Amino acid sequence: MDPVVVLVLGLSCLLLFSLWRQSSGRRKLPPGPTPLPIIGNILQIDITDISKSFTNFSKAYGPVFTLYFGMKPTVVVHGYEAVKEALDDLGEEFSGRGSFPIVEKTNSGQGIIFSNGTKWKEIRRFTLMTLRNFGMGKRSIEDRIQEEACCLVEELRKTNGSSCDPTFILGCAPCNVICSIIFQKRFDYKDENFLILMQKFNENFKILNSPWMQVCNIFPAFIDYLPGSHKKVLKNFAHIKTYVLKKVKEHQESLDIHNPRDFIDCFLIKMEQEKHSQHSEFTIENLMATVTDLFIAGTETTSTTLRYGLLLLLKYPEVTAKVQEEIDRVIGRHRSPCMQDRSHMPYTDAMVHEIQRYINLIPNNVPRAATCNLRFRNYFIPKGTNLITSLTSVLHDDQEFSNPEIFDPGHFLDENSNFKKSDYFMPFSIGKRMCVGEGLARMELFLFLTTILQNFNLKSLVDTKDIETIPIANTFGHVPPLYEICFIPV
């Protein structure tokens, strides 16, 4: 048979199979736009601003709708009520981790962020317990953050009030906090290994937020067979894992099971306790993946929030002035800020919350998946179906936050200027898979920002009306535009 005929017949069969599979699968799923064969709804989605596309779809199909990324259906949940119902009320049913092919290539389902089932539950439980024992939310971790905040201030002083790009310095501080928890050490900001790690983190976060990476996640075959920036991501992940493995080996050689020094020691002790169990999830591979997850998640998200936060404080000097007035009144100039101060600083607390709400760092959350067949709002959701929850639709809800597109700490203040909590504040997600490091991140953001504003005035190189705060990436995460800032000692 002519090869051309064979090719045409093969493509025709693939097309017909795609049409049959999509039409049969759509019958009980939530409504949504009609997908094209093979590519699904990809041409109907603006991959440079996926959140905006989701908002438009929700207006046409309601708070729960189905999109096809390639041939696979994904249920999208939009709006506070639907998001809360999916992540909180049905937290167990939607506790699976959705597909993220580029990461699956690097960790093989290990670790805490992208694992599933018993493995995820055991590693998450152990990680939460260990972080609490090492002081998450308690004095010991607070001491480490305060120490790092002082080091950060000293680095900023070295700029002598001249303009600088704060990206690197603001990345070092949270990275060092994580290092102190995982490795029991912090690095000098000029340390060569530290510089390389920071460069790998920054590079990966930028690439993962590119439109090309969204295409690769929809069509995983591209990762294996096409050149592109995804190859750099894999290479950077491999470098980070090699560094982590080196540290693990050093810990194995000096381990004292009666005196654990850090997270790695605790994991190694757990491995020893379960060494006779054939089904133990505590292995070297899982340790490396978990440490890498904590390393990456605990560094880039907090540093990006700090960087975006200072940009907003530059843009709105009246907010900065109110925060500094509160710092002067409650803390003064001669002692370091501490977490006990927060309850006496409602405006500063509101400012930190508003930064997280406004920047909406991970707009569509990390994908979830159904762990079983279930009914959700009268729709049938098959086991394994990916779930995307729009955090944008919650954090920027105009019924909860007046003028949600405006940066205003007043969103978290009542009529008496007291701090006002909001159930709509969920930058760390909610439910079974909410961020393990929420407590740590909240502490870092408060202590780092108050310490910086206690010691420096912020000066922009351009008029405040010309400062652009629109993110330069709108895909997996929101990345702030690059900017220059002057830290003027007070």
UniProtKB/TrEMBL annotation:
PROSITE patterns: CYTOCHROME_P450
UniProt keywords, alphabetically: Endoplasmic reticulum, Heme, Iron, Membrane, Metal-binding, Microsome, Monooxygenase, Oxidoreductase, Signal
Residues spanning the membrane: none
GO biological process: arachidonate metabolic process; linoleic acid metabolic process; retinoic acid metabolic process; xenobiotic metabolic process
Primary location class: endoplasmic reticulum
Location in or out of the cell: Endoplasmic reticulum membrane; Microsome membrane
Coiled-coil features, chain-numbered ranges: none
InterPro entries: Cyt_P450, Cyt_P450_CS, Cyt_P450_E_grp-I, Cyt_P450_sf, Cytochrome_P450_fam2
The enzyme's E.C. designation: 1.14.14.1
Residues that coordinate or bind heme: C435
Names of required cofactors: heme
Membrane topology qualifier: Peripheral membrane protein
SUPFAM superfamilies, sorted: Cytochrome P450
GO CC annotation terms, alphabetical: endoplasmic reticulum membrane; plasma membrane
Leader sequence residues: 1-25
Annotated Gene3D superfamilies: Cytochrome P450
GO MF: arachidonate epoxygenase activity; heme binding; iron ion binding; linoleic acid epoxygenase activity; oxidoreductase activity, acting on paired donors, with incorporation or reduction of molecular oxygen, reduced flavin or flavoprotein as one donor, and incorporation of one atom of oxygen; retinoic acid 4-hydroxylase activity
Record family assignment: Belongs to the cytochrome P450 family.
Protein name: unspecific monooxygenase
Organism of provenance: Heterocephalus glaber (Naked mole rat)
